[in-house]
Write a structure and sequence with these properties.
With about 50 residues, the protein is mainly alpha-helical. It is about 85% helix and about 0% strand. The longest helix is centred in the first third of the chain and has 27 residues.
Length: about 50
C-alpha cells in the first residue's frame, strides 16, 4: 500500500514539472510564429 502512495507522489511531481516547463516555454516565446524563422532563412538564401 505504501508503494501506491509513492507512485502517486512521483507521478504528481513529474506532471507538475512538465506543466511548469510548458508554461515557461510559452512565457519565453518558444511557440511564437514558427513559420517566420523559416521564411527568414529562405530570404537570406535568396539574397546570397
Amino acid at each position: 500500500m505504501e508503494l501506491t502512495w509513492i507512485n502517486y507522489i512521483v507521478g504528481l511531481l513529474i506532471s507538475m514539472s512538465a506543466w511548469f516547463f510548458f508554461l515557461w516555454a510559452i512565457r519565453d516565446g518558444q511557440f511564437r510564429e514558427p513559420e517566420k524563422t523559416a521564411q527568414e532563412m529562405l530570404e537570406n538564401e535568396l539574397r546570397e
